[in-house]
Amino acid sequence: MNQFPRKVRIQQMTSTTLNLVVAACNNRGIGIDGRLPWRLRKDMDFFKKITTETEDPEKRNAVIMGRKTWFSIPEKFRPLKDRINIVLSKEMKEIENGVYLSRGLNEALDLVEDQDLPSKIEHVYIIGGSSVYKEAMTGPYKCRLYLTRIMADFECDTFLPDIDEKVFQKIENPVNVPSGIHSENGINFQFEVYDKVQT
């Protein structure tokens, strides 16, 4: 008896585009010991801009993250300012006021789409970690991937899943995404955008 309602929820979830924002180096590494192995001010500024700015001044963007990503953010910056923060965890029982706690991505999207949040949210961004990226990339979701490609080698213990070129198609950078190769602290990097091909 529960199968039909579940199918309805899955159909509803695919109506929300999940915008994945991630920086990865040559080996697809995205972090080590709960932190970024590089420090690139331009990438940090891009992350803040794209996850914060909205066309409708009455709305904000939602950022969805796993528990480890939440705790990797320095405490003085938690929750991320001017964004609706949603943390995914099956273990955490409580969280700071103003932050939403969900047991998983599906539950977070139910929250985004079915309660009072739809009128307050303009875009939804996935900001980590690896398992949340993987679920979004391989699940029945519309996705856009904003990838900062770090053209260097770093030791990492957390990795971005493979970007299947049959599933994700690279597109021309939108106007809000810088083009070309950038250099900072001796590191070259570029911003790339991919859209998930709908089958």
Automatic annotation (TrEMBL):
Its EC number is 1.5.1.3. GO terms for biological process: one-carbon metabolic process. CDD domains: DHFR (cd00209). It catalyses: (6S)-5,6,7,8-tetrahydrofolate + NADP(+) = 7,8-dihydrofolate + NADPH + H(+). PROSITE patterns: DHFR_1, DHFR_2, PROKAR_LIPOPROTEIN. InterPro entries: DHFR, DHFR-like_dom_sf, DHFR_CS, DHFR_dom. It comes from the Eukaryota. Keywords: NADP, One-carbon metabolism, Oxidoreductase. Gene3D superfamilies: Dihydrofolate Reductase, subunit A. SUPFAM superfamilies: Dihydrofolate reductase-like. Residues 17-196 form the DHFR domain. It holds the Pfam family DHFR_1. GO terms for molecular function: dihydrofolate reductase activity. Pathway: Cofactor biosynthesis; tetrahydrofolate biosynthesis; 5,6,7,8-tetrahydrofolate from 7,8-dihydrofolate: step 1/1. It is an enzyme of class 1 (oxidoreductase). Belongs to the dihydrofolate reductase family. This is dihydrofolate reductase.
